[in-house]
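Question:
Now give any protein.
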Amino acid sequence: MVADAREPAGDRVRAVRAVLTVVGRGELAFATLHRRPLLQHALAVLEELLPGRLDVVADPADVRRTAKAVAGHRSAQVLTPTEWHRQTRASAADHGPVLVHDPLCPLVGRDFLAEVLAAGADDRDASVVAYRPVTDTVKNMAGSRITGTVDRETLATVASPVLVAAGALARAGDDDLLPLGSETALAAWVHRHGPVRMLRAPSLARRVDDLASLHLLQCLDEVRRRTRSG
C-alpha cells in the first residue's frame, strides 16, 4: 500500500501511496491496447517507478474481473472504494501524498510520472494535476445561435496522474472523501483543498474517451515506434 519513490530532483525518499482507479471507467478500462488491457499498461508503469504495494480500486461489481486482469502483478491489491478509504484513513498519519493514476491514460510514461512526483516534492500542501491542452474549436451558444468562440488557451482537459498533496488530505479530513470515480471531480477536489500546480502532459499521455480515440492513440504510438526504430 505504501511505496517509496526516489525523487529525480532531490535524491530524497518520500512515502507515496499509489492508486490505480478503475472506478467509473466501465468497459474501456479493460479494452486492449497492443493486446494488453489499458489497466495493465497503467499498472506496469506504476510498478516500474514505485516498487512495492500498489492499490487498484474498482467498483464492487468489477472487483473480480479487475483482480483477474492484474493477477500477474504481485504488487497489486484490489480494493473497493469503501475498503480503500478505510485503509487510507487508518494510516493517514503515516503516509504522504497519494498518486492517483487513470487507466484511461494508458501511455503515460515513467518519466512523466517521475516529473509529477518531482513537481510536488518541495511543498506538502501543493497538489499536482496533469493536463492536456484543448485543441478542438469550442463555441459559445445562446439557444440555437453561435455567439462566439472560446479562447482555447483558457481551457484544459485533466490527464493523469494527479498527485494529491498530504496537506490536502489532512485538510479534507474524513468527511470529504477523495473522489476516485471522475478525473474532473478529483481535479476540483484538490483545487478545493489547497494550492495546485498544473503540469502539461505529453501527447501520448492523452485520455481515451471511447474506442475511436483508443484506436487513434494506438496509431500514434505505432508511428512513434516506427520513427524510433527507423
Summary: The chain has one domain: 3-229. The chain has a mean pLDDT of 83. Residues 3-229 form a domain with the Spore Coat Polysaccharide Biosynthesis Protein SpsA; Chain A fold (CATH 3.90.550.10). Helices lie at 38-49, 63-69, 81-90, 110-119, 166-172, 183-192, 211-229.
